[in-house]
Amino acid sequence: MSETDARKVAPTAGANPASSQAEPTRREGVLPVIVVVIGLIIAIQIASFYLPPFVMPAPLTILYATIDILRTDYMHIGVTALRLLVAILFAMVLGIFLGIVMGVFPKIRPYIRSLVIIDTGIPALSWMLLAIFWFPQPEVRIFFIMSVILIPFYALSIFDGIRALPRDWVDMIESFRPRRWQVLRYLILPHIVPYILSTTKSVIGYAVRMVIFSELIASTLGIGSRMSLAQSMFRIDTVLGWTVILIVLNLLLQTALTALEKQLLKWRAEASVR
After folding, report:
1. Which domain holds residue 189?
2. pLDDT greater at residue 149 or residue 9
3. Domain containing residue 221: CATH number
């Protein structure tokens, strides 16, 4: 099977999307966020009038705490971001590998799938406690916790993506008598790209929460440890300042993923449901 023939078989639907199905503009994505943020600020301001400062400080107090964090504790933000990035990339690579193995090799599929399902049934707290017993190094603990929690998301999503391959596509590419790596390169990998991106967008927020929780109990560096310190000192403004930073971090990651998705899937037309 030549590469020219294989490219002809690769999915090309929606390669020239119509202008009426143009991608959402930047304004459509930013405006709702601004409206929600303004609404939250107003709600916090109103609550600060009726609640004591150690329960709900004013938005201006939270802003000052956030600026102070950015000026003095920026290193902890970088540590958390690096831990998050490494764990997600590792979980993505291993999860994709396991998902492809489950989808392509039916003889060992039941065993890997059973292992993944068992992993999903173990609570995150159990993994955290086990990591504390098993690993003395904080970085290894956090990496282990994040990996075992995130890998099943990718593995099951990629497996479902391979199962969703249209039978016509499979029959067509098999008519060229391809080698297994050619099927993987020209059919499976292009097909699972949307599943990888959607899974990553879905787990980003969950991964941020888990890395903070892991740092809170397993490390003295990172946002989680600083939030624990602020809580022990009854600094609710600092806790909310860290929360604001986490929200901004999550928004930046989601924006970056959306931009990457538009670039990788620009061939795909966007459906409009009336």
Report:
1. 75-264
2. 149
3. 1.10.3720.10
